[in-house]
Structures are given as C-alpha cells and as structure tokens.
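Many introductory courses stop at the sequence. We go one step further.
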Amino acid sequence: YFLAAQGQPEKGLACIDSVFALWKEYYKCMTAPSQLNNNNPKTDSYMLELYRACIGWCGIYIVCANAIVKAQVEFFPFDKVSKESGMMAMASYTITGVKAMEWGFLTEERDPHFTLPELKTWFRRAIMEQFDFLLEQSGA
C-alpha cells in the first residue's frame, strides 16, 4: 500500500502478484501426490478451508500486530510519503485486515458455497480496492 501511496503501481502490483504466485505454487504442491505431503494430496475443499483460514489469520496479524500493537510499523516507509499519505496507507491496510478477518472467520455461515477461485478473486479485489484508492490519492 505504501508503494501505491508513493505512486509506484508497477512495484506494488509486482508484490501483490508475488503473493498470489506463491499461493498457486503452494496449491500445486499440496494437491499433487508427493513426498512433501506424504503422498496424501489435499482436496479442493481442504484447500478452500486452508485459504480461508490463512486470510483470516492474515487479517488478525494486520489489525492486531500492526494496526493496534504497531509491532513492525517502524519498518514501514513512512519517510517516503507525506504524513497524510502514510495515514491513508495504514488505514487502507487496516481496512483490508478487517475484511480479511470477516471473510476468514465469519463469512462461512453466510456463504458456505464459496469456491476457492471465488475466494481468491474476492481477496485480490479487497486488496486492489484499497491499492487503487491510494494510487488515485497519490495522483499517479
């Protein structure tokens, strides 16, 4: 989000794409028989629940560790953006964290038929909404 606030969409999108590329490779490893998973490939329903849990824990980390406790905030590039842009980046980051907690832990009761591709699409959209907002605010 700080890259968007700095008006550097290419670098920010590369980071976002890397997260989804990592998940894609992880999915391949987990769903194919191999020594990594004791020749016990995981099902799509297992992977859906795993991805949902990962999203939820990501949200908890964002909100609790970073937004509330400020555990790693000293490593965020506040010095590369204005005070206002830094505050907006942190707010966007926190909004994404709250959405991730909701979809990771609360949405299952409301929409148990969500597919893995739909959940991945939702997560990317949640990230991109805030990324695009910050990019617009930066004037890039």
